[in-house]
Every structure is written in C-alpha cells, then in structure tokens.
Amino acid sequence: MTKWFWIFGAIFILLLIIASSKAIKKNRSIDDYMLAGSNIGALLGVLTYAAALFSAFIFIGVPDFFRVHGVGAWIFLPVSDGIMFFMIFWFGYNLRKKARETGYKGMAGMMRDIFGTPWAGYLVFIGAFMFLIPYVAIQIRGMSMFFTAIFPEMLPSWSWALIIVAIMLAYSELGGLKAIVFSDAVQGVLLLTVLSIIGYNCVTHFGNVKELFNQVQQVDDRLLSTPGPQGLFTTQFLVASFLAIMLLPISQPQFSSRIVVMKSMKETYKMAGGVSLVAFIVFVATAFIGMYGAVKYTDSPTVEFVQNALLFDQPDFLAGLAIVGLFAAVLSTSNAQIFALGSEFRSLLKGDDRSVLLRTKVALFIFAIIVMAFSVIISDELVLLARVSFAGTSMLTPVILVGVLSKQRPGKELLFISGAALFVFLFSVFQIIPEDIMGIRIDMGLYVLLFIITVVSILLRRTLIKTP
Fold first, then answer.
1. How far apart are CA 151 and CA 169, in angstroms?
2. Residue 404 in 3-state DSSP?
3. Low-confidence ranges of the chain (pLDDT < 70)
4. Cβ burial 267-306 (10 Å sphere, 16+ → b, else e)
5. CA–CA gap between residue 158 and residue 161 (Å, rounded)
6. How many whole angstroms separate alpha carbon 75 and alpha carbon 239?
7. Distance separating alpha carbons of residues 188 and 274, to the nearest angstrom
8. Per-position DSSP letters for 45-79, written without gaps between them
9. How far is CA 230 from CA 224, 227, 450, in A?
10. What is the rounded CA–CA span in Å between residue 341 and residue 363?
11. By the 8 A CB rule, do 241 and 76 touch?
12. Three-state SS sequence of 364-387
C-alpha cells in the first residue's frame, strides 16, 4: 500500500505543478486570478462543482453516517442534493443575469451594491467566514486522521495539517481559481473512481446487494428505517437539513462563484445535470461502504472503521489510490472554501488591481492559518459539522435571494433579520441557547420566521411603491 501511495502521490503532485504553471500563464488580470476568466466549460464545471461539494466529508463522514444512523441518511443527503441541482438551474439563471447587470467580484460586494450599504457586504462576508471555517477544517481533519492512522510514528496530526495547508497555498496563491479548477478535475475523477470500486468491493464481499442488506437487518433492523438507531432522522431534522442543503447554491460563495464563472447558461445547465449524475453514483457507493461497516465494524470508532473499510480491506493499489484521492479531495475542496472567502474579501476592497490582489493574497494566507488551527481541535463528527456549515450560511438566504431577484432596492430590514438569525443559530451551536424550544428545532423555527418576514417585507415594499 505504501509503495502505491508514493507512486500515485508523485503523479498527483506532478499534475498539480502542471496545472498551476498552466494557470499562471493565463492569469493576466485580477479577474483572471479570482474568476478564472469566467470561461469554464461544462466538463470542468461538473468536476469543480463536485469537488467543492464532495471531499473528506464524502470519503469519511458519509460512509460513517450510513454505518451509524442507517439508510435515513439517503433522505438527508442524496435527496436534498438532488433538489439542490434544480436550484442551480433556477438561481443560476437569475444570478448570472444580475451579474451581467451589476458586475460580479463576489457575493458580498454584489449585495453591498444592491442594498446600497456596506453592512450588506459585511454581513455576507462575516456569515461565510464563521461557517465556512468548520467546513474547511473538516477536510484538513479528515486527511490528518488518515495519515496518522497510516504513519502513526512519523508525524503528529498537526504536522500533516501544516503540510496540507502549505501545498494548498502554494498552487492557489500562484495559479488562482484556474489552478483550483484544474486540480478539481483530477480530484473529481479520483473521487468517482475510488469510491465506485470500493463500494463495489463492499457489495461483492457479501455476494450481492440483497445479501448485504439482509446482514444489516440481522445486526440492527433500525438501520433500515427512520429515525435510525439513535433517533437522529426526525421529521424536523430531515426538513431543516433538506432546506439547508437545497439552498447551498445561494448561501455558500464557493458554489455561487462556480455558477458565475461558467462560459454560458447552456454550459451551466449541462454542469448541473452532470453533477447530479456524479452525486447519485457517489452516494450509492458511500451507502454500500457504510452498510458494509455496519456489519463488519458495528461498534468500532470512526477512525478504525474508515481505515479498515477504505484501506486495509482493499487491494494495496486501491488503498494507495484512495489515500491520494482523499488527499486530492482535501486540497481542492479546502482551497475552494478558502478561495471563496478570499473572493468575498476582495469584493469589498477598493483600490488599484495590484493593491487589491496583494491584500487578497495576504487574506488567503491568514484564512488558511486559521483553518489549520481549527482543524486540530475540531470534532470527528464530520457530517454533522458540515450540516452546521450548511445551515449557518443558509440564514443569509433572504438577503442574497431577494437581492438577486429584486428589481428595486431591497429593504434593509432583511439585513437585520438575517443577521439576527445568523447569531441565534450560532448561539444554539455553542449551546448558549437551547437547540430546541417547545419541541421545535432552532434552525427549523428560524427558517419559518425568515420566510414569513421576508414575504411581508417584499409585499409591503411593493405596496409602498405602488402607492401614489
């Protein structure tokens, strides 16, 4: 396994060097650096969007989620992701139209201009910063877990995190978004290939799919229904999660930016369809891996299950490729999130291109250091941490959605309610306030309130405009 890891790893690093050097030649302006020239085709679009969405979260978190909580995870993740791709069609069309009208440097800058106040930009940037940090740290943590398991005597976990961040910064600082997109292409192919083969191997270990699920039923039949063995998949949890994931193209800048940089709307539609296909294949594979673990590693901790199911139970060449695939996933997805924060920061800056680009690169470096530090202390509950990121940024939806769709200047009250919801949700995460109030989840209650207040705001403003 180690030999194959070094072989595949060397090939991957070589591809990164080639991609970065190619991207450097094409970065002739700050827009080329930050937005890849807004000329991405469907195939690269599929791979870069999938890489931003699927990473260590998919390799480690999702199989373990299926193993621990059962098939209800299919409703939580694949169904929600399926609806999310329809959001790419609808929101993508409107976002690209608004971007042509106002110019696009980042969602924070766009909202500042649309609402006519810098506070709109600050809110979007702060919300993204607070909740993308755990999302990025998930990737670093996942890779550190893998390397510590494989090379337990070589380096401590924080050292692996430092190495990952250093490589990530090297090619993103030099090549910009174009380099990230090229690396995403490699990662996307690796992700699909490795998970498909491992998922197939997990099924064939039991003979066929039916026998796999028969074995799962004998271990714990609660794994085959909701709310699952631990009662996680309640109706409120599933609905709130469905909304948080569905709104990702709106609420998280790494996804909205990938919609904007597509070559045309036609290519965007192709990209959405391709990503939905990739998602289906990936989630089927991770479900098989999770069910395999439910039978063979029922009571094992996450690290033991992951290293056995993805590495030690697989042929050496596949295990080596899986490590490189996870490493590639961490690099590309972490870079997507950090670079998105950099884009949001850049969109709020003023000055000449050279000055703005320098300050943006410094900010990217600072964001990466913060993420590395956070990854050392973060929990192993990777999927739930990702959901916190999804739900947190979704509180910004009223501001962004109304800003993109509205033909008039939106009301500033939307900034207040979204900001308030953002911090209420954050307080619930840190258990400063209860996660449930009178039997209603905080995030679910916030979604209802945000919807009602947003609709009232829109109707009142339309009435005031029509009143002579």
1. 24
2. helix
3. 23-29, 31-38, 55-56, 142, 146, 171-175, 377-387, 464-468
4. bbbbbbebbbebbeebbbbbbbbbbbbbbbbeebebeebb
5. 5
6. 10
7. 12
8. HHHHHHHHHSSHIIIIIHHHHHHHH-TTHHIIIII
9. 12, 7, 30
10. 9
11. yes
12. HHHHHHHHHHHHHHCCCCHHHHHH
Give the other-Cβ count within 10 Å of 355's Cβ. Answer: 12
What is the per-residue pLDDT for 379? 56
DSSP of 68-137 = HH-TTHHIIIIIHHHHHHHHHHHHHHHHHHHHHHH--S-HHHHHHHHHTSHHHHHHHHHHHHHHHHHHHH
Domain limits, the chain = 2-383, 395-468
> Residues 350, 329: contact at Cβ < 8 Å?
no
Residue 286 contacts residue 66 (beta carbons within 8 Å): yes
CATH T-level fold of 2-383: Sodium/glucose cotransporter (1.20.1730)
Return d(Cα 93, Cα 268) in angstroms, integer. 9
pLDDT at 191: 82
Phi then psi dihedrals of residue 104, to 5 deg: -135, 120
CA distance 374 to 161: 10
Mean pLDDT, the chain, whole residue set: 83
Tell me the per-residue pLDDT of 361-394, one tens digit each, with 9 for 90 and over: 888 888 888 887 777 766 555 445 556 777 888 8
Sequence-distant (≥ 6) Cβ neighbours of residue 234 within 8 angstroms:
227
Q: What is the pLDDT of residue 466?
A: 58
The C-alpha atoms of residue 321 and residue 311 are separated, in whole angstroms, by 9
What is the C-alpha to C-alpha distance for residues 97 and 404, in angstroms, rounded to an integer?
A: 9
Structure-block tokens of residue 170: 């090297």
Predicted pLDDT of residue 247: 85
Looking at residue 383, its pLDDT comes to 47
DSSP secondary structure code for residue 349 in this structure: -
In angstroms, the Cα distances linking 22 to 171, 180, 303, 305, 398 are: 11, 11, 37, 39, 39
Within a 13 Å sphere around the CA of 170, how many CA atoms are in the beta-carbon half? 13
3-state secondary structure of 141: helix
- CA dist 148 and 158 (Å) reads 10
pLDDT tens-digit profile of 352-361?
Answer: 777 887 888 8
List the structure tokens of 102.
Answer: 């106002």
Quote the Cα angle for 16-334-281, to 5°.
85
Q: How far apart are CA 20 and CA 170, in angstroms?
A: 9
Give the pLDDT of residue 178.
75
Q: Which two tokens stand for residue 21?
A: 């050097």
Please give the structure tokens belonging to residue 338.
């950090």
Cα dihedral 47/387/64/339 (nearest 10): 40
Q: What is the pLDDT of residue 199?
A: 93
Compute the residue count for the chain: 468
Rounded CA separation 207/137 (Å): 37
